[in-house]
Amino acid sequence: MIYLQIFDETRKRNFLNSLSEFIEDAEKALKEDNQLKASKLWKKHLGSRYPEGNDEKVQNDSRYSAAILGGASTSKPWASE
Predict the structure, then answer these.
(1) pLDDT digits (tens, 9 = 90+) for 42-53
(2) Residue 75 and residue 62: Cα distance in Å, rounded?
(3) By residue range, what is the domain housing residue 53?
(4) In this structure, is residue 18 part of a structural domain?
């Protein structure tokens, strides 16, 4: 029984670490002006089937990006508060 508790804590910690890394890279991707660089950040977490963007700059709508980033950086769906 103790083994299961340790295993569950390890799985939980690994999941939360992976989720934090995904959120950090998602924030970087949303801020990135270059489609190729941004798509590589998404592809890292979403897999090889995620398409690569063009190696060109794109104009970001700063209001939209700010809203997305604000929600992503403050959301803690795993918190027990």
Answers:
(1) 999 999 999 999
(2) 20
(3) 2-68
(4) yes
Task: Measure the CA–CA gap between 74 and 5, rounded to whole angstroms.
Answer: 29
Beta carbons of 29 and 47 less than 8 angstroms apart? no
Q: Are 53 and 30 a contacting pair, CB within 8 Å?
A: no
Quote the number of domains for the chain. Answer: 1
Measured CA to CA, the distance from residue 27 to residue 68 in angstroms comes to: 8
Instruction: Give residue 47's region: left, alpha or beta (phi > 0; psi -120 to 50).
Output: left
CB 57: neighbour CB atoms within 10 A? 10
Reported as a single tens digit per residue, the pLDDT across 6-39 is 668 888 889 889 999 999 999 999 999 999 999 9
